[in-house]
Design a protein that fits this description.
Blueprint lengths: L3 H14 L6 E4 L3 E4 L2 E3 L2 H8 L5 H37 L5 H32 L8 E8 L4 E8 L1
Antiparallel strand pairs: 1-2, 2-3, 4-5
Helix pairs in contact: 3-4
């Protein structure tokens, strides 16, 4: 028993003095890591975001949440349109080209909205970690290829 006591004492000291990182990191697939926990749903991220009293952070999180919800809805509707028309064609019904094209178009819009949600989540992570995010990014570029020379300006909002 006397030999176990120093082990427990050392373990208690190590556990009490090791602090966890207060930084949030962005992972692939729209997931966030905070203090060793990996979260993928907005309802899991919200309690962590609400720890900081930053209205810009709250606005960015609400934008992420609404864009993610719309992307999911558009993905389901577009996937149904594509799946129903292709499934009917596999079974032997006539291919519904309008439904197939409409579903593919809705899926394309859903992918764009999902990209916007991922950018909003990236902004949330940067704001949570104390970084500042500029609203407008302006990038000048010169593109020179064998058959094309171009000068341009890229605005990112």
């Amino acid at each position: 028993m006397k030999q176990i006591l120093p082990f427990y004492l050392l373990f208690f000291i190590l556990v009490s003095f090791t602090g966890r990182s207060q930084e949030m990191t962005l992972l692939k697939g729209g997931r966030v890591s905070f203090q060793g926990q990996i979260m993928s749903k907005p309802k899991e991220i919200l309690p962590i975001i609400s720890q900081k009293d930053n209205p810009e952070l709250t606005t960015a999180f609400n934008t992420y949440k609404s864009n993610r919800d719309w992307a999911n809805i558009l993905g389901v509707v577009g996937g149904f349109g594509v799946g129903y028309s292709l499934g009917g064609a596999i079974v032997g019904r006539k291919l519904s080209g309008g439904l197939l094209a409409g579903g593919a178009a809705i899926l394309g819009v859903g992918l764009l909205v999902n990209g916007s949600a991922n950018r909003s989540l990236q902004r949330v992570v940067q704001l949570f970690n104390g970084g500042s995010v500029s609203e407008v990014q302006i990038e000048l570029f010169i593109k020179s290829e064998d058959y094309l020379n171009a000068v341009g300006v890229k605005f990112r909002f």
